[in-house]
Amino acid sequence: MSAPYPVDPTKSVPPGGPPAPGWGMPGSAPPYPTQPVAPYPMQPHPVEPPPPYSAQPAFAPHPTFAPQPGAYPQPVLNASSGGCPIQPGPGARGTPGMNTGFPKNDAEALPEHFGASFSDKAIRHAFIRKVYLILMAQLLVTLCFVCLFTFHSGVRRFVHQNFVVYMLSYAVFLVTYLTLVCCSGVRRKWPGNFIMLGIFTLSLSYLAGAIASYHDTEIVVMTVGITCAICLCLTLFATQTKYDFTGCGIYLFVAAMVLFIFGIIAIFTYSRILYTVYSAGIALLFSMYLVFDTQMIVGGRKHEMSPEEHIFGALVLYLDVINIFIALLYIFGGKQ
């Protein structure tokens, strides 16, 4: 039910007649006076003057660069399908074909330096095992030659009567040694590297056996035992010491040149004392070379041998041991 119209109480209403117009009714005047119009005219807003500087030109892309594409297009919602579009993003763990940002396996989750360090140690240990297995085979062959030439009188007599075979073995030794040392492709390519190393081992074993055949059996046996003890002690020292001998290669080379010149002088003097001093110098030099080469093979020092040089590593160690053995033979059996 609506509220009644307001009625002016100053006006009488005849009985039965229409009500007098009140406030808000048509034809009735408002009870408040009309406000006069403002006596001052309305002024328009003044126009601002133009800026004192010229307008900047619109941005234009550099002529050498093509305009870059805009934002990636977003899929439009298909209202008729009643579903929402699938936004591209990282997939769940293990989803094929999608970059999830998670490591695929345990190896990928490990730090990069950890795997490299473990791999280097494994490769170095395999290299050391291979070098010393080859060295043991070489020393076993040489020991067989020395024992045969020392204990078998017929073989000893053959060696003493055929000096040409000794010189031929020396020539083969020099050729194979220089080939393996100077040609890296030969000593790294299988099976040629093992064939060359086998020829080198046989020739040097014949030389060592021929030299041993000129000495008494007791001297040879004693020298073999002393050589084994010296090489074992030097190998343990090289692997356990904190001193790094891999930077002494140039000094060892100079010492070798000095001993080479001294040996030439000793040949023409025919002095037993000079022979003994020269043999002691050779034994000391190759003992130092054994420490140097062992640290180069084991690694972990300033300089180390490449894991691909297992033939070269076995060659230098074998040469060190044989030279120590021959030098000790000259020291203990100088009269022969």
From TrEMBL:
Compartments in which it is found: Membrane
GO CC field: endoplasmic reticulum; Golgi apparatus; membrane
Keywords: Membrane, Transmembrane, Transmembrane helix
Residue ranges of the region described as Disordered: 1-49
Membrane topology listed for this record: Multi-pass membrane protein
Keyword Ion transport listed: no
GO biological process, one term: negative regulation of apoptotic signaling pathway
The keyword Disulfide bond is assigned to this record: no
Superkingdom per UniProt: Eukaryota
Residue ranges, compositional bias (Pro residues): 28-49
Transmembrane segments: 131-151, 163-182, 194-213, 219-238, 250-269, 275-292, 312-333
CDD domains in alphabetical order: LFG_like
Family recorded in the similarity comment: Belongs to the BI1 family.
InterPro entries, per database record: Bax_inhibitor_1-related (IPR006214)
Species of provenance: Petrolisthes manimaculis
Record's protein name: Uncharacterized protein
